[in-house]
Design a protein that fits this description.
With 307 residues, the protein is mainly alpha-helical. The protein is 70% helix and 5% strand. The chain has one domain. The chain is built from eleven helices and four strands; from the N terminus they run αααααααααααββββ. Helix 1 crosses helix 4, helix 4 packs antiparallel against helix 6 and helix 10 packs antiparallel against helix 11.
Length: 307
């Protein structure tokens, strides 16, 4: 009798494990595919940058940026290939987030007019992700070299990112198509890039104007202050900007420490952009999962929309 009970318990346990695998196992495999490619690409990019950092580049032969002479950042300028290591390596946090966005743009494309544009068209997610990758690589290059070219590449990434936030909000407000969005995006970013080459000192003001304009559009679009993701992203960005000011004014400054205010600014800004992306995804009806049942066998999970 005890053996029969034990055998029944084992069968019941195996049945429940089968149900759990059918319910969560395939979902886990799908999520693993989503993160595997970005993780592999991130490892390749970091390995390439580590290899570059082992080489001795003569940065002094390049035209140096104004930040080198004015000592804008708190971190001590070191000799070698990486002049500001903590500010440089903290910039790489933008890269995995951008790669994840670009990968998700391919996997999560759902053709439904009820969803937000960033879910209906993969070009939005791709452009958002690529701008973050360029921001990370450009910021690393700038803090590693402190050269004029490095500053230019760094600001290009900032304009790509700020231009996307501004143009995406404007396209949703005006109900533009994806093609019109790309045209407006190019009309916003290209003049800023050309202006940056001739007037590099105005970059922070132009980038600040883009961010403030994007925030104003989001608040006026559908009262985004009621959305928790938007509020947390806004608070995170504000905290990062406050720490950046303290670092620049040397009020929060330890030159030889691993704790750098500008590095914290990089991390908080990357978190704010990730929250902004999740906020964009939260627009429209939620996409949920359910298990299909057919002929005594659990089938692949299907999507359905629920407000």
């Amino acid at each position: 009798m005890k053996r029969k009970r034990l055998r029944f318990r084992r069968i019941r346990k195996g049945f429940y494990l089968t149900l759990l695998f059918e319910k969560y196992g395939k979902w886990f495999i799908w999520e693993l595919k989503r993160f595997f490619v970005p993780l592999a690409l991130f490892i390749v990019i970091v390995s390439a940058l580590v290899f570059i950092s082992t080489k001795d580049f003569p940065w002094r032969e390049w035209k140096l940026s104004q930040g080198f002479y004015r000592d804008v950042f708190c971190e001590k300028i070191r000799s070698g290939s990486i002049r500001q290591p903590f500010n440089a390596w903290s910039s790489l946090i933008f890269i995995p987030i951008g790669l994840w966005m670009a990968r998700r743009a391919f996997l999560d494309k759902v053709p439904s007019p009820r969803l937000s544009p960033i879910r209906r068209h993969k070009r939005y997610g791709l452009l958002f992700g690529i701008s973050l990758v360029i921001t990370g690589v450009g910021s690393w290059f700038f803090h590693a070299s402190l050269t004029y070219v490095g500053h230019f590449v760094d600001v290009i990434g900032m304009y790509f990112l700020g231009g996307f936030l501004f143009t995406y909000g404007l396209s949703r407000k005006l109900r533009q198509s994806a093609t019109a969005f790309l045209a407006v995006y190019a009309a916003v970013v290209v003049p800023l890039v050309l202006f940056q080459w001739f007037n590099p000192e105005a970059s922070r003001y132009a980038f600040g104007a883009l961010i403030l304009s994007a925030l104003g559009i989001e608040i006026g679009l559908h009262k985004s202050l009621s959305n928790k993701l938007f509020v947390v992203a806004l608070l995170t960005l504000g905290l990062g900007f406050f720490i950046w000011i303290l670092d620049e004014k040397k009020l929060l400054c330890w030159p030889q420490s691993c704790l750098q205010g500008h590095a914290i600014w990089h991390i908080l800004t990357a978190i704010a952009t990730q929250l902004s992306y999740l906020y964009y995804l939260s627009e429209g009806p939620r996409v949920n999962w359910k298990i299909g049942y057919r002929a005594g066998k659990y089938t692949w999970m299907n999507r359905y929309w629920k407000r």
